[in-house]
Amino acid sequence: MSDNGTVTLTIDGQEVTVPAGVNLIEAAQQVGSEVPHYCYHPRLEVAGNCRVCLVEVEGWGKLQIGCNTMAADGMVVNTANERVNEAREWIMELLLVNHPLDCTICDQAGECKLQEYAVDHGSGVTEFDFEKAKKPKNISWGDKVVFDSERCILCTRCVRFLDEIAGTDEVSIDKRGEKSTLIVKGDGKLTSPYQMNIIDLCPVGALTSRDFRFKSRLWFMRFADTVCTSCARGCNVVAGSRNERLLRMVPVSYTHLRAHETQEVI
């Protein structure tokens, strides 16, 4: 590490200098390389359970997870060579092994990281020919959030957000193996005033908004950057509408794909 608190490493053939303590996912972004990830979020503690962010650090032997590997001086990192790509194909197959084929009716379709990464990093075929595990659908977590267990990839973003940010510790993982699922502790209903944030954090279609559920496909909507008027804080949000009717508002940090570029304020 240099005297100014930075480290210099090589990622995909490009030398880059980043602040000490930055992980390889964020360091790779500095050279334009995207390392796919589900469980990692820069504002949450590292869980390291989705494993799709595997990268190769030359001289380290086994592949490493980019979310929990810090950049260091002299590192030579490969984020998309043949070895890494083959490993990601297997990881994607494991994540999809029990996932339902219901993209056509899923609210997340068009902005789903599972769809995107399946195309970009999946093999397109499967070695598994057994019946998918059946898990509960349309579970009410209160008057705002609906949970579809069979879509969940157990990234635990929602668990960690409610524990670390909201401070309510309301959701946990129940059971083990293919029977693992998320549950709300106590009476099964969320009470946190920040509960809608876990919908925005969910990278797949497991958590959906009761108000927006089945209201519109993403590509039929128009989007505009605007400001929330619910309080005096003035949070920046993206409003989505269809046929001049406001259907949803999400934070600007929500990494969704827009069917159309931002248009005039709705």
Write the layout of secondary structure elements.
Elements: E1 6-11, E2 14-19, H1 24-29, E3 54-57, E4 64-65, E5 76-78, H2 82-96, H3 113-121, E6 139-140, E7 145-147, H4 157-165, E8 171-174, E9 181-184, H5 197-201, E10 207-209, E11 222-227, E12 236-242, E13 245-251
Parallel strand pairs: 1-5
Antiparallel strand pairs: 1-2, 3-4, 3-5, 6-7, 7-10, 8-9, 11-12, 12-13
Task: Describe the protein's architecture and organization.
Strands 2-1-5-3-4 form a 5-stranded mixed β-sheet. Helix 2 (82-96) crosses helix 3 (113-121). By secondary structure, it is α+β, with helices and mostly antiparallel strands. It has helices at 24-29, 82-96, 113-121, 157-165, 197-201; strands at 6-11, 14-19, 54-57, 64-65, 76-78, 139-140, 145-147, 171-174, 181-184, 207-209, 222-227, 236-242, 245-251.
The count of β-strands is 13
**Secondary-structure content class:** alpha+beta
Please tell me what the overall shape is: globular
Q: Could you give the distance between the termini?
A: 49 Å
Number of helices: 5
Over the alpha carbons, how many angstroms does the gyration radius reach? Answer: 20 Å
Averaged pLDDT, please? Answer: 90
Low-confidence stretches are 255-266
Helix content: 10-25%
Strand order of the largest sheet: 2-1-5-3-4
Largest sheet: 5 strands, mixed
